[in-house]
């Protein structure tokens, strides 16, 4: 993925909504973007069960932990993010026995 900014289309023309794994990272990003942006915390369940489905309906990708002075990084489709969560939680198609 190339250089990205909040709401800008990616290489396939889809906007991305950024999220960070910690409040400190989100606060740094809000400071870089400026304006009236602020970090808002959420837990996994509402993010996975409410926020991500809404992004999918809106045709948005998910930007994860964008960093640096220009806030660049990777973005993923909602199903890709849900699969990664399932894998990390050992649920769903990526769950392993034992």
Q: SSE layout and pairings?
A:
Elements (H helix, E strand, L loop, with lengths): L15 E4 L3 H11 L10 H14 L3 E7 L4 E5 L1 H11 L10
Parallel strand pairs: 1-2
Antiparallel strand pairs: 2-3
Oligomer: single chain
Q: What's the SSE pattern?
A: EHHEEH
What is the strand tally?
Answer: 3
Q: What is the terminal separation in angstroms? A: 35 Å
What Rg is obtained from the alpha carbons, in whole angstroms? 14 Å
Helix percent reads 25-40%
Pfam families: DUF2750
InterPro entries: DUF2750
Structure, explained:
With 98 residues, the protein is of the alpha+beta class. It has one domain. Helix content is 37%, strand content 16%. It is built from three helices and three strands. Strands 1-2-3 form a three-stranded mixed β-sheet. The N terminus is likely disordered.
Identify the notable features of this structure and list them briefly.
98 residues, three-stranded mixed beta sheet, DUF2750, 3 strands
How would you sum up this structure in a few lines?
The protein is of the alpha+beta class and 98 residues long. The protein is globular and about 40 Å long. The chain has helices spanning 23-33, 44-57, 78-88; strands spanning 16-19, 61-67, 72-76.
């Amino acid at each position: 993925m190339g250089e990205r900014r909040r709401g800008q289309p990616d290489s396939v023309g889809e906007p991305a909504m950024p999220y960070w794994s910690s409040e400190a990272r989100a606060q740094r990003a809000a400071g870089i973007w400026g304006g009236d942006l602020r970090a808002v915390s959420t837990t996994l369940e509402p993010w996975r069960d409410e926020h991500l489905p809404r992004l999918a309906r809106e045709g948005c990708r998910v930007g994860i932990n964008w960093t640096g002075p220009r806030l660049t990084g990777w973005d993923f489709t909602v199903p890709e993010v849900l699969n990664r969560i399932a894998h990390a939680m050992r649920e769903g198609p990526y769950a392993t026995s034992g």
